[in-house]
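Onboarding guide, step 5: your first structure request.
Type a short instruction followed by the sequence, for example:

Predict the 3D structure of this protein.
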Amino acid sequence: MVGPAGEQAGIVKIEDALRLARDAELDLVEVAPMARPPVVKMMDYGKFKYENAQKARENRRNQTNTVIKEMKLRPKIDNHDYETKKGHVVRFLKAGDKVKITIMFRGREQSRPELGFNLLKRLADDVDEFGFVESSPKQDGRNMLMVLGPHKKKTEAKADVQAERDRRAAAREADAEAERTELADRRAKAAAEPATKKKRGPADNLDPDIDLG
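The system replies with structure tokens like these:
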């Protein structure tokens, strides 16, 4: 039997072990049933299960689910397409994902591997703020591959995205509150102003004692 603090109590009869556990207001838990003799431990089983659940939850929260995205380019890609695809790569890296860049060669392009290498180097330099070259460019048949890794972990990227969403929501709420306050001020000001005087007409200048009949 093992005591609540991990101390060894030696071989104890089951009746004595149960009595000791009851006296200490603890549970007697079998922790190694296949051992000879079996091993039991005195503990607060409810607290033990709760702490284990908390640890498992924390481990899942800290676990990084790595996703590898892929982006394909041609060696002679035009600037507009390049900027579009670079934008996708930046978005993936900011989300905490790895990105596999594939340069696809066709026909005579296969004799110009430097085109692919230079393009990959250009892309790596352009997205240096968000990621790094995890796997250097290498030839793979008709293709050339490179893997970019994000500077931020997945959990950090998610936290940043959530913080930005919270900031935008707070800004929208502040703007709405300012509009409500301005509207209330205008209404209060309008209510405090005196009523507009009636304009005088020709009949208002007549002597009320004059008989018009």
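Each response can be followed by summary notes, for example: The longest helix spans residues 154-192.
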